[in-house]
């Protein structure tokens, strides 16, 4: 490959994203779609020959025109003049060569981003093998900086998937996964969060990659975002492909829930344990009327073996003068989902009241992230945590179904109160267990039982 005066290649090919070719830094016009696809396939093969039959199949599938081979020859001629504009008539090309095996584009790691990416990945793995994680992380980061999107932007050029481009996409995702594992063990995932977010956006159905993203988000303290990733992908897999999340994705989700169940504002909760809950409003927000209410805009709630989900559709009554959902309604959604979960777990409010007990809300906070409008369909995902004997913490993610966006996160600190003495019981989890049929729904099943359910 001819270099310029500074030692850089005169031609630079980029296929880790929409296909681009630069000469001395100036981007070239690559011509019509089919011509761009031929160049993309040659670059994806990274110096390996590509037969005319394979090109014809990629461009036209099983129904090529009678002139297909001539069209391919014409496009290849155009590409030769593009990469070697000084090439004379009937002069053999040094870059785009042909023989009995097919066409081959001569490149190296200085001129083709794919080959440089592979070399950097090998260097990173070598550094890992000799226990130099910092050096490996730096090289992985350098490699992933080359990635700009799916190989050659093929999804915009082809109506159907191509094995050649898909193989490179899987290769990039696999290397990103290696980097994510190393980042999790060395810096809590911080160095890979941005790169993994970008890649996961393009490879939405790659469960292994999405699982890595969830773990890194959780390690970075963004558990709500990690949970939203899981539920968005789960919905897409179920509704679009008719399948459930695989074992790796479920395991990552369960790990996030287990790790996030032990952190939080425990000092605040310790103070609350020794105080008498005197707010009547706290009890009223969780009374029997909330349990028995069944608004028409609430669909069938369900437990998936890991968390509980309540689907809700935003009604006209929820919307304020601005056209967006009133702030107070987000809390109403969380309360409705909370009681839907308890109902699915088998709670009888009458039995609880007969025992002289009532739930009390000690504290609630909400983080708003997106606005909702009339007709939006949402999932309220509820998980139960037990940071101390007297406290039950509920963390609820409100997720918009249309785009999987995390809309809000509601965190409620609750307890069980002895109504006569107006004091919190000392063993909330044990008492809840006495009144529920399905302990897994409220996070009280043992890990082995939860694994069997999922």
Automatic annotation (TrEMBL):
Pfam families: 4HBT_2, BTAD, Trans_reg_C. The keyword Transcription regulation applies. Gene3D superfamilies: Hotdog Thioesterase, Tetratricopeptide repeat domain, Winged helix-like DNA-binding domain superfamily/Winged helix DNA-binding domain. Residues 291-306 have a biased composition (Polar residues). It comes from the Bacteria. Residues 258-306 are annotated as: Disordered. This is OmpR/PhoB-type domain-containing protein. It comes from Micromonospora inaquosa. The lineage of its organism: Bacteria, Bacillati, Actinomycetota, Actinomycetes, Micromonosporales.
